[in-house]
Write a structure and sequence with these properties.
With 94 residues, the protein is mainly alpha-helical. The chain is built from 2 helices and no strands. It is rod-shaped and about 130 Å long.
Length: 94
């Protein structure tokens, strides 16, 4: 009698476990579908596209820094040439 009761309980526990796993999987599927639908409605970009944009932004910052330095160097050179021109003009008019 006890053995039949234990067998019934074990069978019930096994069935409950199977049902719980099925419910868990169903909840995961529903949640995943909800998240996918929400992200589609929010017009989110994939991670790979975001990574690509970040790389491009970094390259653009580096190029901008290089160009700023070149402009600063050119301005210094122009100032030097203007000083030389002023010195030559002063020498000619004196």
């Amino acid at each position: 009698m006890k053995s039949a009761l234990l067998n019934d309980l074990a069978g019930f526990a096994g069935a409950a476990y199977s049902v719980a796993n099925g419910v868990r999987e169903e909840i995961k599927t529903v949640a995943k579908n909800q998240i996918n639908g929400l992200s589609a409605r929010m017009d989110l970009v994939p991670r790979s596209e975001l990574d690509t944009v970040e790389i491009l932004a970094q390259k653009t910052r580096e190029e901008t820094d290089t160009l700023k330095k070149q402009i600063t160097d050119m301005q210094a050179h122009i100032n030097e040439l203007q000083e030389r021109l002023t010195t030559l003009e002063d020498a000619i008019t004196s």
